[in-house]
Amino acid sequence: MKHLRSRSLFYKMILIVICSFSIAISLVMFLTMQHMQNSFTSLYSSETKLLLEQISDNYYELHKEVTSTLELCRKNPYIHKYLANHNESVQEQSSTIYNMEKALRHINLLNDQTLSTLMLFGVNGQVYVSNNDKRVMDLEEIWNLPTMQQALRSPNETHYVYINQRLVNSGAKEESIAAIRILQDEKDVTYGAAMMIINLNDFEQYYRKILDPEINTVAIIDKNGFIFSSNEASMSGKQNISLLQTIEDNRKSTTFKRDGRTIMVEYMPFLDSYIVCWIDDAQFFAEASQQSMLLMLAFVLILITCLVLYALLHSAFKPLEKMRLEMENIREGDFEGHLEVKGEGEIAQLAQSYNYMLDGLKNYIDELMSMEKEKRLLEIHALQMQINPHFMYNTLMSFKILAWQNKNEELIQSLTAFISLLHETLGNKEEKITVNQEIKNLENYVQILKIRFGTHISVHYNIDPDCLSCVCPKLILQPFVENAFFHAFTDTDTGNIDVFGRVFQDHLLFEIIDNGKGMDLRKNTMKGSSFSGVGISNVQERIVLLYGKQYGVHIESMPGNGTFVTIELPVIRESNA
Q1: pLDDT in tens, 317-373
Q2: DSSP E strands: which ranges in 298-436?
Q3: Are 458 and 481 in contact (CB under 8 A)?
Q4: Angle, CA 26 vertex, CA 22 and CA 30 arms, to 5°
């Protein structure tokens, strides 16, 4: 029993194979006896219908080639010259024939002499026959053919006609299919005609090669009930009004049954004709039942076996599918999807191991997130405590000087700014603040710096109101403004610092621009600052830690050209923080 439980999946597969074949054999034997005849006939009819569509497509390709050839004849200037001119010399006529044959040389239909022959004849009495063929009918007789007279009445169309007499020497039969196009110039003056003669035997090969003549009877019948091609010699060249009536009575269906026969019809608009194929159901079943029965038996047997295999395997591997779906949820941060452990064997053991792994992974992620959060809080706290003693000493000395000079209003403003700055840096332990708060902190810091540096350095704020409610890390603007005060204007009497803030698409952008002396970024790393020690690299590390590597600080500067700083953050509104 222990062995069976540990190998349960293997024995389930053995059971599946045995049951599938047992059920399949039983059902096949029963269903074959009940539905064999109807199934065979229906299947073969469907296949034959597809073959008829293929035959129609082949005839359409032939039609396109014929039409293209006749259109080429209509547009070719050498053919027009050969058929229309009356007074050409022998030398000129030879040159015209050479260029005419050169233009026709690439036509596929003319490359095989047994397939088709192109005949050109003009009103000037000239006649041209391709492939070195010889005509056997006088020119006057050709012009007087009823089909030619019909073509003359519709000169802009290609006419297909059945001809029951030989026009040229080539061809295995007297009969042929001819495509006729009247040739006219730009003034609609008829100067000749082009006739593509297709040997009837070659025309019939389009369906003889595809359909089995032992089973299928094929006929091509026009709108007048005339059958101009058939694999039954007794039908070809005769009218069959009853067959045409049967087709028109069942126009809504391309496959129907009549008098124990299955009849399939495909309309070919380019020939304005129907291709008809019918099968004698009883004869077909008598000839094909043994081989078809074996094929159908194998088909049904495989089909049923596959269905049973699918059903049983789906049930056996259902826990694995559920495990796969739960594993996809892990990528979304969901660690609560435990699998229900059912039964015994490999699947149950795998489910238990998965649940143990999920619990361990969840505990590890929770601990890691807690450690990262504490780490960030400690970093911010350390930054807040890094106020430079020299800065505080110099600031207090500046306050003392203001008091000696009785500049009480400036002293009060400076003390207010200093108190607000200390409150935000030492009292506020939040890691993130709004842009509005960050700008106020920066304004307070600039107010204090101006006590020391005077008013020759101007700071301008251009903050879009739309971004004031956005959330950003604390103290990300101060290091860059501080760096400009201490280093950008040491050689000048005046200077300007512009601070921009705006929302662009889903990014929060800050830009700090000064017109100071600039610097060489390869030599100056700017790691620290005199106020908080935050530094540019520290700001970059905090942004990457909070939002990822796609955000951060970008600096552009050259000696003598000032400095351009861009800070890129995601847009996070205060209500969503």
Answers
A1: 566 666 666 666 666 666 666 666 565 566 667 777 777 777 777 787 778 877 876
A2: 432-434
A3: no
A4: 170
